[in-house]
Amino acid sequence: MDFVGLPVPYTMKPRRISEFLIESAIFLAGTISILFVVLIFIFLAKEGFALFRTVSLWDFLAGKDWYPISYPPRFGALPLILGSVWVTLGAILISVPIGVACAVYIAEVAPHWLREILKASVEFLAAIPSIVLGFIGLVTLVPLVQSLFNISTGLTALAGSLMLGFMAMPTIVSIMEDALTAVPRSYREGALALGATHWQAIWRVVMPAASSGVIAAVMLGIGRVIGETMAVMMITGNAARIPTTLLQPVRTMTATIAAEMGEAVQGSPHYASLFAIGIVLFVITFIINLTADFFLHREK
Amino acid sequence: MIRINPRITEKLAFAFLFFSTLLILVPVFLILVLIFKDGLPALSWEFLASYPRLGMRAGGIFPALLGTVYLAAGTLVFSLPIGILGAIYLSEYAKDHGFKRVVEVAIINLAGVPSVVYGLFGLGLFVIFLKFGASLLAGSLTLGIMSLPVIITSTREALGTVPKSFREVSLALGATKWQTIRRAVLPNALPGILTGTILALSRAAGETAPILFTVAAFYLPKLPQSIFDQAMALPYHLYVISTQVPNVKLSIQYGTALVLILLVLAMNIVAIVIRARFRKRKLW
Q1: CA quadruple B197, B203, B206, B211: dihedral, nearest 10
Q2: Average of pLDDT values for A36-64?
Q3: Which of A52, A231, A233, A275 could disulfide-pair with A255, CB 3.0 to 4.6 Å?
Q4: Range of the domain at B239
């Protein structure tokens, strides 16, 4: 010891103080996530609630006209909400069956050497920036949809759904795979010992045991899709009217914020309305994440 | 009732599973091939090191590339210390189960907030309320908060893999709790922390929506001089030249997409290599 001979308080003090400081910092950093969630809501509300001085909440959520810069402006967000719902619905219908099947293949069927390659590829898909996928969608998928259905433009809800379904795959596959891996080995062994085929064991025993994982995967897939911005803005056409088929252009909530914030005057009702859409998105994803978390933790 | 031979059902089912897997992987592969095939011809030293010219229809991407590097560095500065300390709190200090759950739920929600909402938040808090203006500082802070959940989660996982006995031995030798964490736990969790951090940064570097209103500039004739300046960024630049500016050559668009993909891919590969190397070296 370097400090032998010095009175105890002198050796202890600096260390005690630095220890106290670092542990305070740790506590602060540990709880700061809560602060940030609250701050996000506060700052969305601070800018967004100004809208409701001129427009009622009902007219905002259920209004059918979104003409933010005409005079007088109309702030009916229903076309945008429905745009998000349509695109999300289409994406989930595409990605859930395929994503769950892929997860089952990776977790239960694929030989070991192939498993790691498949997992890495799916992870890589998750790493591709959404702007790159939007660009690729714009130059490949959009013309394809246009010629396939012989319509005037390929910038449609369908193109958005296809691309977003693709983009949601990594989320769905990885959560589903975790849920499948969490099913005890003995379940499979028991089923196989009773004479079930490999598939019967998967279908009748493993899948039901991992069912809450399916629900969590669907929920978080929805969360991923409804929050996606750049890709969806580039390929869905951005027409703010209520869609009746998937082959029409739609405008989602996220795309509206990203496309219009640049031209909205700070402090204007238009500006506030974009923050109000942000509140709607925040509340939706908040509920989705809480629900998914509930299903993921129920198992344990 | 007709009974189908279970062996045949199994064959059909596995064929379906395999086909679904292909439906995901083949497009990934095709996208890569497409970007490399059409992007490589545009790639040159000049493309990386020169400014855009002729209204971005010619020239290179240097300011955008540099802006993205600055933003990634800024994100790292803000999110790494808070992320690591936050993870240490959850893994080593938090005792009260109920409060810990609240923190966990907050982190899960932060991870789920749409990126464009982060952009709004950054605009409201950093750009307007704190008067940073659209700047590297505001953009880095926004991306930093967005990256926190990833860094906290992966660091916490890495800390969790360090055996309990390491801590017990250190404490038994008279080390304090923080000394134990710093000397016995953190060094052994370092590879996992590095991996998670690099993955978080690669995501931040590719994001567009959070920087739209907080930092990204359409075009700047000179480089940012301080953290209070706006900057161009690679993802936003790709957005601009593929949708906002008419008649940009496809090769320039593909070239920009390729550089962005290579940047993200390189970071991911580094992360995977670190993970794989240290996994082998682990002695416990």
Answers
A1: -90
A2: 90
A3: A233
A4: 45-281
CB of B106 within 8 Å of a chain A CB? The answer is yes
| Binding-face residues of A in 64-103 toward B, CB within 8 A | 97-99, 101-102
* Whole-Å CA distances, B68 to A65, B72, B115, B119, B233: 38, 6, 17, 16, 5
Smallest Cα distance from A234 to chain B, Å: 7
CB-side neighbour CA atoms (13 Å) of A58: 0
Alpha carbon distances (Å) from B121 to A268, B82, B143, B260: 17, 19, 11, 25
Residue A13, pLDDT score = 64
pLDDT at A4 over 70: no
Sequence spans of domains, chain A = 8-49, 77-298
Read off the pLDDT of residues A153-182 as tens digits, 9 standing for 90 and up.
889 889 999 999 999 999 999 999 999 999
Give how far B117 is from chain A: nearest CA, Å: 6
The CATH code for residues A77-298 is 1.10.3720.10
**Pairing verdict, β B58-59 and B52-53:** antiparallel
Query: Which of B58, B56, B73, B49 lies closest to B218, judged by CA?
Result: B56
The neighbour count for residue A289, using CB atoms within 10 Å, is 20
* Contact flag A129-B206 (C-beta cutoff 8 Å): yes
B113: CATH:
1.10.3720.10
Within A43-168, strands assigned E span 66-67, 74-75
B173 at A interface, C-beta within 8 A: no
Q: Which of B93, B116, B209 sits opposite A30 (nearest CB)?
A: B93
Chain B CB contacts of A230 under 8 Å are 208-209, 235, 239
Interface of A with B in 152-211 (CB under 8 A): 166, 169, 173, 197-200, 202-203
